[in-house]
Amino acid sequence: MTGYLYYPGCSLKGSGAPYEKSLLAVFSALGQELKEIPDWNCCGATAYLSVDQDMAVAMAARNLAIAEKLDGQDVVAPCSGCYLSLAKAKATLAEYPDVRARVTAALGKASLPYEGRVAVRHPLEVLLTDVGPEVLKKRVTRPLKNLRVAPYYGCAILRPYPGVPSPQAPHSLEDLCRVVGATPVDYPNKARCCGGMLTAGVQSVGLRLVEILLCEAKAADVDAVVTTCPLCQYNLEVYQERICKAKGKDVRLPILYFTQLLGMAFGLDDHALGMDQLLRVPLVAPCAGVKA
Amino acid sequence: MNPPAEAPRIGVFVCDCGFNILGVVDVPAVVKFAAALPGVVHAEEYKYMCSDPGQDLIKKAVQEHGLNRVVVASCSPTLHERTFRRVVSEAGINPFLFNMVNIREGVSWVTEDKVQATEKAESLIDAGVRRVTLQEPLEARSEPVNPNVLVIGGGIAGMHASLSLANANRGAKVHLVERQPSIGGNMARFDKTFPTLDCASCILTPKMTEVKIHPNIRLHSYSEVVSVDGYVGNFDVTIEHKPRYINEDLCIGCLKCIEACVFKDARFPNEFDLGLAKRKPIYIPFPQAVPTKVLIDPHDCLYLRLGTCKKTCIDACEKDAIDLEQKPDRVSLKVGTIVVATGFKPFDARRKPQYGYGVLPNVYTALEMERFLSPTGPTEGVPLLQDGRKPETVGIIHCVGSRDKNTNEYCSKVCCMYSLKLAHLIKERTGAEVYNFYIDMRTPGKGYEEFYERLLSEGLKVIRGRVAEVTKAALTRAEKDHLIIRAEDTLAGFVRRIPVDMVVLAVGLEPQSDTQELRRMLNLSCGHEGFLQELHPKLAPVSTATDGIFIAGACQGPKDIPETVAQAGAAASEALSLIHRGVVEIQPYTAVVNEELCSGCKVCIGMCPYDAIGYDEEKRVVHVTEVKCKGCGVCAAACPTGAMDQQHFRKELVMAEIAGVI
Ligand SMILES: Cc1cc2nc3c(=O)[nH]c(=O)nc-3n(C[C@H](O)[C@H](O)[C@H](O)COP(=O)(O)OP(=O)(O)OC[C@H]3O[C@@H](n4cnc5c(N)ncnc54)[C@H](O)[C@@H]3O)c2cc1C
Ligand code: SF4
Ligand code: SF4
User: Fold this and answer.
1) Among B347, B410, B412, B420, which is best to mutate for testing ligand 3, by the most ligand atoms less than 8 A from CB?
2) Do A188 and B471 touch (CB under 8 A)?
3) Chain A residues with CB inside 8 Å of B480's CB?
4) Which of B19, B52, B62, B235: disulfide with B230, CB 3.0–4.6 Å?
5) pLDDT value of position B235
6) B1 DSSP assignment
7) Which of A95, A121, A147 is the last residue of a domain?
């Protein structure tokens, strides 16, 4: 029973395609198997939970029940939103017997017994704990020297079901940056909100949050911001021009996935990492990367 | 053993303990059950068995029904076994023909299930009745109480207890053991104390000196208690003096050696100043230290670390006091009572990383601020920023590590008050604007609320809300180059960002990190937060479950100086009361040998931790020295032939008890 089960969620199949590409490329470069959960469904995200708790939990739990039925390996959920929905469903089922009774009854009808056996994990933590910095470092062929990076976690993998160690002062991305030879800057806003759905709903508020994050990264003179979540990446990347125009300041910055950063250092191909699908790529990399 | 002389006539008395037991256990049913047990001739229920009428009821029943054995089913024996043994003995029955069954702590307090609780109470009483049937009359022996006292910890609690004891207890010694090079504890770090703002050293230093010169106190500074054996009235204690590398008797505290040390600059963090100031390898912790003797830190001293140095300190010392070859030395003492006053440890602010301690500049703990405010501290009483400027704005964050599910749930009790004190002193010394961020302002105590009012009228800004974070990510020009404290103002109903120059973290009080080792050495218990546990929270606040050992001050839980001193006085008086009584009763739970069964294999001799068993060459059997035996029972368990047994815990008794519960 080796490898991991992979729960992509909708983002990685759509706007977050570069995340999926780079994730799969990096895992395969490390010889770690990621097996997509067959017939997975929507995680329910935050929206459904506010409409009908039982239904929302049942939807997320269905994915976990399928995983249990397979080999019961750990489920890797790269999208922070999915990670949160799955973790929350698992915790709710463990804590509230009444919800559990209703949800397991529903899943039972689909011959999907649920026992809560599989772990839900974020790939950032999987890479750092299971594979480990030493092994990652050995795989680096193109150290990203001189690359200054703002590590940005967003909220969903930190609160309230921490997916990485030390959630009050996370350091996993910083550790990863050091592994690839880049310089993580002190980025005090690293756990703040990216605006989430507010960038669509209440744009004035959502964009203000994005602006704060970008200005802070600019002030730290970074070459790129590295993210762990497709929604964070999207919010930080696509509204840059609009903010520049509205506020008369330059907030343009490359916004990468941490898996792209790792892939670049592994010397993987741009296209395989989905670099060509980003609006901006850091200047010093990938082409300017120096051989070790 | 001999069968009981007369047929057992057992009385069972079941206590309601108000609603404590009655609320969960069906007491009338239990009484009915007990009445039907073999040997039981009388069973009854009462509201409070330990009360005077309850005690009389037992005595009366003994008379009326001619009882010769008694079982009381109520609370834990640690609470009232002594009470009921006395009652039984006053009624004319040997106190060891009594058995106490715990149906409160072990039953009604641990479940809400009435059926199960009643069943468990019944089976425990069944066990208790079977056991008492086989119990034998025994005699407790009494022993003199050694009048010497051991006090562990030389903070304000330990010093006050030592002085009270030394003043009253003529002719005996108080041994005060302090692990630091100087006594004084945390109070020695403060400049002023709340709510009166009186000078801490003015009230502390005279006490420290008195401890030093008192003829009845022997101060063991820079020492550790390494072992404690024995029992109330007769403890054997071993103390280790750590090497100071100075002969304490010769050193006059002239400090010439410090001046002469080959290290020209002070470059090692001074523990007393929490690392804010530096010292040399040879140093004195602070100017008023008691004893006023220098010491050398072997980790910093060139000679002690590397074996080579010009040893200029030795030449400088006119008294020949420096001894770089000094080794730790141990002394053994006998004492009759022990007072534990080991104080607290401040909460480690790094455990709340969102407040930036250790990462952001100019973020300090309250204890560090106490040192900044002290005239003998690193900035001579005026708190300064790292760039040397006076701060213009300071934020004090309350409840750091306290009242927090992630760290400690309890309130640390003194931090609201000391935060107000610090706010006043910071304003006084720097003229800074001070903001206190609190959850609830807790100021109960004489003159405490008035102190809070005074601070408000002095213009202190208070904001109600737990601080979310301290950050240096500025959003506006006003915030630039400041620390920004972000908190929800729960009275105004919005989130505030307050830029300040300096942040002070009001860290809570935690148990000392070695409390568990201390607990094991002294056979004490700890509450769930880890502080030492008193025998009873209301009625025996300084006693412990181990007779003859008392606790005082912050080692028992967070408290301020007035409360600490009151407890220290109480602990001293409890110890004195034992000393003046002069004798203690020793339970007769010793081991006994049945010589007929003993094969002389001597297995027990090697097992006995107290060296209480000897071998009779002539009879070829072992014998027990009663005064040495502590009744641990190891030998009885080890004996292959069943010759060794322990009084009041004989095998039949234990087996009968087990048969009752299964
Ligand atoms: C920042 C701050 C400010 C405060 N300000 C005030 C104030 O203004 N007014 C007020 O009333 N209260 C104040 N307090 C509370 C006050 O500090 C305590 O009430 C007081 O220190 C408790 O005294 P203690 O002797 O019990 O403990 P401590 O002062 O902690 O002393 C314990 C002593 O025991 C020693 N020790 C520990 N373990 C051992 C061992 N195993 N063997 C030998 N020795 C040992 C320690 O080295 C120490 O010397 C403040 C507390 C803090 C944190
Ligand atoms: S031996 Fe050397 S380093 Fe050590 S205290 Fe003396 S002079 Fe200083
Ligand atoms: S005393 Fe005040 S600051 Fe200290 S924990 Fe209690 S409420 Fe918080």
Assistant:
1) B412
2) yes
3) none
4) B235
5) 95
6) -
7) A121
- E strand or H helix that includes residue B256: helix B256-260
CATH node for B10-140: 3.40.50
Residues in chain B, pLDDT under 50: 1-3
Domain ranges of chain B: 10-140, 149-242+330-342+512-581, 345-510, 591-646
| Per-residue pLDDT, B310 | 95
Count of A–B CB contacts within 8 Å?
A: 13
Angle between the N-to-C axes of helices A203-219 and A230-238, in degrees from 0 to 180, rounded to the nearest 10: 90
A184 SS3 class: strand
Q: Which of B140, B138, B6 is nearest to B648 (CA)?
A: B138
* Residue position matching structure tokens 């002023």: B192
Quick one: pLDDT at residue A50? 82
Which listed ligand is nearest to B225 at the C-alpha? 1
**Residue B560 phi, psi dihedral angles, 5° rounding:** -90, -175
Using CA atoms, how far residue B354 sits from A152, B434, B469, B609, in Å, is 16, 21, 5, 51
Domain ranges, residue A70: 2-121
Measured from the Cα of B402, ligand 3's closest atom is 5
Selecting from 3.90.950.10, 3.40.930.10, 3.10.580.10, 3.50.50.60, what CATH number does the domain B345-510 have? 3.50.50.60
Confidence class for position A284, pLDDT limits 50, 70, 90: low
Answer whether A188 sits within 8 Å of B354, measured CB to CB: no
How much is the average pLDDT of A30-34? 95
Look at residue A287 and tell me whether its pLDDT is greater than 90: no
Q: Give the closest residue to B633 by CA, choosing from B662, B659, B609.
A: B609
CATH level 3 topology of B149-242+330-342+512-581: FAD/NAD(P)-binding domain (3.50.50)
**For the stretch B306-339, what's the b/e string if a residue is b when 16 or more beta carbons lie within 10 angstroms of its beta carbon?**
eeebebebbebbeeebbebebeeeeeebebbbbb
Mean pLDDT of chain B: 95
- CATH of range B591-646; options 3.30.1490.20, 3.30.70.20, 3.40.190.80, 2.60.410.10: 3.30.70.20
Distance B344 CA to ligand 1 centre (A): 6
Check: CB of residue B147 under 8 Å from CB of residue B336. yes
Contact of B495 with chain A, judged by CB distance below 8 Å, is answered with no
| Average of per-residue pLDDT across A229-233 | 97
- Tell me what the mean pLDDT of segment A52-61 comes to: 94
Asked if residue A32 belongs to a domain, the reply is yes
Q: Which of B350, B469, B476, B484 to mutate to test the interface with A (most CBs of A within 10 A)?
A: B469
pLDDT of residue A290: 41
- Give residue-wise pLDDT tens across range B539-564: 899 999 889 999 999 999 999 999 99
Same domain, A143 and A212: yes
Q: For residue A283, what pLDDT band results from cuts at 50, 70 and 90?
A: low
User: Does the model's ipTM exceed the 0.90 cut?
Assistant: no
CA-nearest residue, atom 8 of ligand 3: B399
Is the same domain home to A144 and A260? yes
Average pLDDT for A93-109: 96
Nearest-ligand number for the alpha carbon of B239: 1
Task: Tell me, yes or no, whether A289 lies in a domain.
Answer: no
Total number of domains constituting chain A: 2
pLDDT given at position A267: 95
- Show which of residues 473-492 on chain B sit within 8 Å of chain A, judged by CB atoms: 473, 475
